[in-house]
Design the sequence.
């Protein structure tokens, strides 16, 4: 009996080893099969990124950036280039065989911010900086376009490379690109955003459903009645009114929104008065509101307006309110998310793919869902200051992995 058990164990162990060997061989074969990796223009991607970083342009002003991107795309020889908006560029690569149509999007605009890095290629434009990583997004997508352009004869279907203007400034550039009609026929949209504090080159798959927040803004002018500081009974103090509004707005999340529903109400501006002994006649407030569902977004807007209306009336003041709905939340498609994960694992290995938390920031990439399903993901760029910080940097070693993941996602989508 003991000998039989030993024989069974030996057979089981040999089978396990053989299975592991097959898996290892399959993994090696998968990597060996990715012959296109050698087509990635790694040095050019870094060169493109540095040029764009050094010459940043703010939203709706990306004239030189878009011209640079257009020239690079045209130099590839087989990519059709169009301008869906004044400072946006679309490159279209048509494969040799018919098939699906897929799009990958990168944004190109910088922020009105003074750069505070010691990079040898730091911004040459005073007060403008690529502090969100859009220079990296653009360079990676150019790398993806260059890689796939060398594979045109093998491609079934069509790839749209969207280089979009004005992501940072509502109403955003995506709306212009969509309204141009240039994206008719696209069946799926993918996008990628660099984020610090995740390992460089690791791809994060954002959640299915709400992958980011919706962003709304309000600007509020409270109109009181000015008076001498020693005679408050003759005035209507807009600072007191504003303080009551700020305090009441803190209850919107804690007492009106369903627990577990991610919501943020931030009062970022409160300005009034010029002298210590004068009751001002006006106060200005501004706020940012983040939500993830249409239901909560509408509920929060209605509640904020009720609070402002009631408190100003109670104090005898009047007001002017500009409530602006900007970007909706990105809603990641379940099937596309699964596809992106599988392709990223195939390109980089399972150990370099992770489940990314929902972004609390907002993105006008969300609008592409008007045309077709979307999937948005992140790319780690190592330790460093947060996006929108004047010291923001990108670990450039991560960019090659970004290109690898993008190419694999597109190839798998076209070939499935």
Sequence:
């Amino acid at each position: 009996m003991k000998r039989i058990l030993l024989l069974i164990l030996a057979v089981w162990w040999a089978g396990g080893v053989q299975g592991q060997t097959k898996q290892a061989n399959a993994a090696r074969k998968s990597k060996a099969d990715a012959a296109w990796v050698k087509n990635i223009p790694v040095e050019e991607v870094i060169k493109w990124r540095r040029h764009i970083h050094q010459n940043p342009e703010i939203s709706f002003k990306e004239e030189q950036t878009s011209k640079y991107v257009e020239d690079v795309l045209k130099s590839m020889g087989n990519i059709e280039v169009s301008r869906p908006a004044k400072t946006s560029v679309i490159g279209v690569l048509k494969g040799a065989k018919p098939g699906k149509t897929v799009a990958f999007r990168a944004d190109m605009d910088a922020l009105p911010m003074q750069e505070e890095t010691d990079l040898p290629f730091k911004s040459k434009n005073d007060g403008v900086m690529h502090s969100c990583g859009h220079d990296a997004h653009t360079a990676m997508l150019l790398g993806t376009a260059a890689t796939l352009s060398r594979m045109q004869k093998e491609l079934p279907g069509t790839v749209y490379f969207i280089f979009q203007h004005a992501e940072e400034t509502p109403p955003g550039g995506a709306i212009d690109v969509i309204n141009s009609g240039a994206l008719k026929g696209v069946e799926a949209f993918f996008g990628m955003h660099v984020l610090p504090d995740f390992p460089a080159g690791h791809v994060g798959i954002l959640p299915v459903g709400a992958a980011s927040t919706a962003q709304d803004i309000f600007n509020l002018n409270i109109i009181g009645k000015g008076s001498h500081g020693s005679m408050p009974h003759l005035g209507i103090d807009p600072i007191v009114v504003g303080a009551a509004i700020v305090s009441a707005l803190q209850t919107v999340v804690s007492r009106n929104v369903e627990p577990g529903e991610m919501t943020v109400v931030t009062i970022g501006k409160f300005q009034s008065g010029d002298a210590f002994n004068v009751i001002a006649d006006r106060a200005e407030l501004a706020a940012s509101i983040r939500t993830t569902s249409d239901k909560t977004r509408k509920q929060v807007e209605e509640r904020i307006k009720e609070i402002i209306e009631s408190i100003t009336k109670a104090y005898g003041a009047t007001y002017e309110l500009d409530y602006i709905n900007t970007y909706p939340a990105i809603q990641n498609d379940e099937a596309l998310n699964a596809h992106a994960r599988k392709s990223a694992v195939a390109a980089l290995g399972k150990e370099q793919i992770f489940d990314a938390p929902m972004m609390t920031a907002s993105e006008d990439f969300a609008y592409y869902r008007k045309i077709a399903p979307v999937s948005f993901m992140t790319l780690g760029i190592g330790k460093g200051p947060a996006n929108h910080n004047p010291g923001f940097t990108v670990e450039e070693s991560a960019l090659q992995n970004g290109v690898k993941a993008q190419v694999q996602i597109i190839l798998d989508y076209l070939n499935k």
Q: What stands out?
A: Residues 214-325 form a domain with the Alpha-Beta Plaits fold (CATH 3.30.70.360). Residues 40 and 147 are 5 Å apart (CA to CA).
